Amino acid sequence: MKIGITGGIGSGKTEFCKVIRQEGYPVLFADDIAKNLMMTDHDVREKIIIAFGTESYKDGVLQREFLSSAVFSDPEKLAELNAIVHPAVIRETAAQTDELLNRYDLVFYEAALIFEAGMDNLFDYIILLTANEKNKVDRITRRDNVSEEKIRLRMQNQMSDVLKKEKADLIVENDGSIEDLQSKVKFALSILSTIPA
């Protein structure tokens, strides 16, 4: 089965996936696939250059800071970038998860924007991580060393947990300790491993 893992920034997706990997299951990361495609996929690169200018790449290397600043507080520009990258990510995700299913019973895929990108139909089940807003802000502040204002701007670009809860199959509330999260991962795995494929 293919399992999607999603949640807003600061919800703890990375820690959740770390435990899954420790339990011996493969996890693909949407961000890694997207970054790779923006570097290696000719069609994606050309579309980014047309939309955002030649400053998007320097000596063939994606200028992430330039691109981030171009879309950061402009929802239309962000939507334009997503429209370029998401279809390629969806194709690559389907190919990679299918390949891994030849060797594993459960394959996991982490992406903040599973629902926003219309990727939910790629998965048999979707796990949503949630946390209260204060915990999310505290985690991102520590991790990225950015202002609360910038964090809240990023949060506004994501679908609310209320809407995501209506679409998810399993909801994991992550407001406790790392140990608490680890036990919840193991509980989720025990449920998934008993579901017939």
Give a structural overview.
A hairpin with a 2-residue loop joins strand 3 and strand 4. The chain is 55% helix and 13% strand. The protein has helices at residues 13-22, 30-40, 42-52, 64-71, 75-100, 133-144, 148-156, 161-167, 178-192; strands at 2-6, 27-29, 57-58, 61-62, 107-110, 125-130, 170-173. The protein starts with a strand and ends in a 5-residue tail after the last helix. It has a 5-stranded parallel β-sheet, with helices on both faces. The model has no long low-confidence stretch (mean pLDDT 91). The chain is built from 9 helices and 7 strands, in the order βαβααββααββαααβα. It has 197 residues and is an alpha/beta fold.
Oligomer: single chain
- The string of secondary-structure elements, in order, is EHEHHEEHHEEHHHEH
**Low-pLDDT stretches:** none
Radius of gyration: 17 Å
Broad shape? globular
Structural class: alpha/beta
Strand segment tally: 7
Distinct helical segment count: 9
The main pleated sheet reads as: 5 strands, parallel
Strand content: 5-15%
* End-to-end separation: 6 Å
Helicity, as a percent range? 55-70%
Mean of pLDDT: 91
Strand order within the widest sheet?
A: 2-5-1-6-7
Give the key terms.
197 residues; 9 helices; 7 strands; single chain; two-stranded antiparallel sheet; alpha/beta; 5-stranded parallel beta sheet
